[in-house]
Every structure is written in structure tokens, then in C-alpha cells.
Design a protein that fits this description.
The protein is α+β, with helices and mostly antiparallel strands and 213 residues long. The protein starts with a strand and ends with a strand.
Length: 213
Amino acid sequence: MTHYGMAIDLTRCFGCHACEVACKVANNNPADVAYNKIYTVGAIGETEPVAYDTASGTYPNCSLSFLPMNCQHCENPSCLEACPTGATMKDEETGVVYVDDTLCIGCKSCISACPYEGVRTLVSDEPEWFQDVAVGEFDAPAHLGNTVEKCTFCRNLTSRGEVPACMQLCPGRARFWGDLDDPESDVSKLIASRDTMRLSEDAGTSPSVYYLV
């Protein structure tokens, strides 16, 4: 068994949104669906996102820092208990949290229970795309109407030995992914060697995404 997780180096992220675009294309996401977002932060030292590419503070004392946000793939996911149909699942072999769209009824209970705002999206009844042809991986999600979707750490890619799409185009090499239970993995070594933070730890969810600060 493994415990997949991610480390995101906030000192390397410069808000280019390449990871966000790579994720959206690889998963052929509808126009209103994004698994991965790059927020800007309210002020240096704070972790609450505010808006896209918006500096905080009052001129001339402004600051601009970025907070990549996707599903945190918690060890104790609150969404799991909230789901009335069992559609939200946690893979016992990898620790990845995902939604079975054949069981999801679009009730949004998981969205309400999740302490991480914006990481889940209810797909509209009739999904729409920006382009007329499908893009991305051949096994991208089906995007069924009235179901909830979220980041899966690109289960389709990682199951065949590749890395998540958000890592592939990052020009700052700000993302690291691997087995958190393996002390020799790149992600574990980085977490052990750097100061880190995790979001909303007081919620008791034990997120598997670490931010290197």
C-alpha cells in the first residue's frame, strides 16, 4: 500500500496558471469545471485565498503571493462521511479520494462538508465546453451532468506510471508528488527538509497536500 500526496513549493510558484490549464485540458473539463486553481493570498503569511492575480494591501505597501488549490486528498476526509450514497470514496491502495459518478446524485453534501473551498464542482445538467472537440487523455472523466467532480491526482495517469498533469507543465517545478509513506521518495524528503504548512489542520482531516514555505 502507498499513501500518495503532493508538496507544493510556494517559493517557486509565480502564479502562471500553467498547472491549472494543464489539468483542465488533460481532463477535458467543461467550461465551468476546474479541479486545480491558483488563488492569490490576502497578505504575506496568511493562507486564505482572495481572488485571481489581485495584490493585497494598500499602495505602496502591496504584496502578491499565490496559493495553488486542489483537493487535499485527506487521510480523514469529511466528505466521505457526508456522502449519502457512498459515491465519495477513498482508494485503500493509494489513499486517493475520488467520486464515483455512477453513484453521485449531485446533492452537494460533500461540497458542504469539505473545509477547502472551491475544490469540488457540481457539473451542470448539460455540460458545455469551450471547444467543439474532446481534448486531453483518452481516459479523461466522462463529466456526467448533475454529478460532483474534483481532482483525483490524475488516477488514470498515475496508475500507468505517469505523474499528475499539473506537474508536467509547471515551469517553476513547484510541485512534487509521490508516496508519503516512503521516506526515500522525493516528496517525503522535501517535506522532511523544509518548513511546511497544511491547510485547515484544525478541521482534523489530515490533508495529504503540503505547502513548502
